[in-house]
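Think of the structure tokens as a kind of shorthand, similar to the way a musician reads notation: each symbol stands for something richer, in this case the local conformation of the backbone. In the example below we present two proteins back to back. Begin with the first one, reading the sequence and then the tokens, and try to describe in your own words what changes along the chain.
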Amino acid sequence: MNFFKFELVYQIILIVVLSQDQVVLQSSLIGAMSELGPFRINSDGKTLFMNDYAWSNVANMLFLESPAGLGFSYSNTTSDYDKSGDKNTADDAYIFLVNWLERFPQYKTRDFYITGESYAGLMCHSLHTPSF
């Protein structure tokens, strides 16, 4: 999970970006570091520069790696890797978001948007309607 905080309180919108592409196992950090996050990677591959067009200029952004094992995500429970499929992924993401909002209650009253690119876009619908 990566969270980029926007400082102007009156414009804060919490945006959750799910994994970029579950089919080819791309990390959501690809989008964070090359498209819409606050930083871009310089051509030397070692340093960063500010992204003037970052979504984080107008919103708080939470990048969620899902399911466990995708991108930089992991689990301390080996059996979690055996639980695959859209239903389990959406249920896990829902549980994570509920717990995240409990830990950071100042975001509970903010507008909340969920988005995803490629296959992750399909997962957004499942996250809106958890199965439990």
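Once you have a description of the first chain, move to the second and do the same.
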Amino acid sequence: MTRILAVLACLFGAGAAAAEPVIYQCAIAESNAGGGYLSPQVIISHDAATGEAIVYDAIVHHVHGKPIPAKIVQADAKRLTVSWRVTLRNGTGQVTQMSYRAVYLKGLKSFMLSARPSGFEDIFEGRGTCKL
């Protein structure tokens, strides 16, 4: 975990700017609702000064081997919402674009993660908490 945080800091150039990015270390409660498409731990780095965010979890690691950029959907005093996409291949060789959305409610310290495969109505969801 320390290595991942160091990678995130390097990607954002932590220490170079006056304000450093906020790193959210989020954990999802165990559940079958994720369908295997949700990682139990997700790390989100948000740099409010640059308006950039990156994400890293087991799925991103498996596909890309490193953190990837995320789109900031909403970032204010109440919440941080980011989204990203990962192309996945299942055991039978089918390929799908999985759209992820993470929401951190700052007042409640609550985390929600959802994944939706393109072309399907299914939504896989998980809930948990984050450490800053």
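Compare your description with these statements about the second chain. The domain at 2-12+20-131 is CATH 2.40.160 (Porin).
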